[in-house]
Structure formats: C-alpha cells, structure tokens
Design brief:
By secondary structure, the protein is an alpha+beta fold. It has 2 helices and 10 strands, in the order ββααββββββββ. The strands form 3 sheets. Strands 3-10-5-8 form a 4-stranded antiparallel sheet, with no helix packed on it. A 4-stranded antiparallel sheet has the order 4-9-6-7, with no helix packed on it. A two-stranded antiparallel sheet has the order 1-2. Strand 6 and strand 7 (about 120-125) form a beta hairpin. The longest helix has 17 residues, at about 25-45. It starts with a strand and ends with a strand.
Length: about 160
C-alpha cells in the first residue's frame, strides 16, 4: 500500500499503484477506490458541489432580489357603501394612493407597525365626485385607507394602494 495523507481532515489511504502497466485497474482496486470516494463524499456532508454552469445560486439571488424590489399592491371597491383597504408594505417605503368616489368623500390614511393598532397620518378630501392620486414616503409596515366612518357614505368608492422601493 502507499502512504496515508490528510484530505479535509479525513485520513485517506492511497490506493497504491494500479495493476501491471497496460492491464488497467484491477476490479478489486477499483472497488476499493470507489469506497474511498464514497467515504470522502460522506465526510464532506454527502453532497456533490455542482459545477458553476449547473449552480442555480445566481438565479435564486436574482429571483429573491426581484421579489424584494417588486411593488406590492391592493385594491378595493364598494358599491354605495363604506370601504377600507389594508396593505402590508413589507417594508417598502414609497407608497402611492389612488382614491375615487361618486360623491364628496373623505378618505382617512393610517399607518401601523403591527397591523392591529393604527395611527391616523393624513386624509384625502374629495369635495366633489372624482379621484385623487397622492404619493408618500412611509415608515409604517401596514397602510390602511378607508372612507370616513363618521360620514354617511352611500357613494361608490375605490381605493388602490401601491408600495415599492
């Protein structure tokens, strides 16, 4: 047999010289060599590392970044009644709001860090039927836009919230 050497902290025995020159590797040597390769793979955690052209880590990173930077949105409509829409911005700080009503309506804009306790941030007043679009820089995770609960609201309403990075 040959000498012993260390590979990644695992002691590996050198398989020695294969058979007589020109006759190839003996089946017993090949079997022993395959056993040693299996031991090495097990010692490395049982995984073979794919060559770069087969490695999908780059694709996983691109997919993750695309999801992180893709806008999130939510839209709601009501027919002759009040409306409330809540969006989890997932930390996206740029928020656009679009509101529409068939009557004069006030829309309340609130933020929450936990999705339970909301703080009134501002309001959007429509003094006549129509629509408005407003953009905000936002630190709250959850944004709620709703028609004012203190107004009698028998209008058709629409709310759209979009958040992005």
């Amino acid at each position: 047999m040959g000498y012993n050497r260390m590979f990644m902290g695992v002691k590996v025995e050198d398989p020695g010289t294969p058979g007589v020159p020109g006759t190839g590797i003996k089946p017993s040597d090949l079997s022993r060599l395959m056993d040693k390769i299996d031991m090495l793979i097990d010692a490395l955690g049982g995984t073979n590392i794919a060559p770069p052209e087969q490695d999908d880590a780059g694709e996983q990173i691109k997919t993750g970044l695309a999801a992180l930077f893709s806008p999130v949105h939510k839209r709601g409509n009501s027919i002759q009644g009040p409306l409330s829409v809540i969006l989890d911005t997932q930390g996206r700080p740029v928020v656009d709001l679009w509101v529409q009503s068939t009557a004069a309506t006030t829309f309340l804009v609130s933020g929450s860090v936990d999705g339970t306790h909301y703080r009134l941030a501002t309001s959007i007043a429509l003094n006549q039927p129509g629509e408005a679009h407003v953009g905000y820089s936002n630190a709250y995770r959850y944004i709620k836009v709703e028609t004012s609960p203190t107004q009698l609201n028998i209008a058709d309403n629409a709310i759209e919230i979009v958040a992005t990075r």
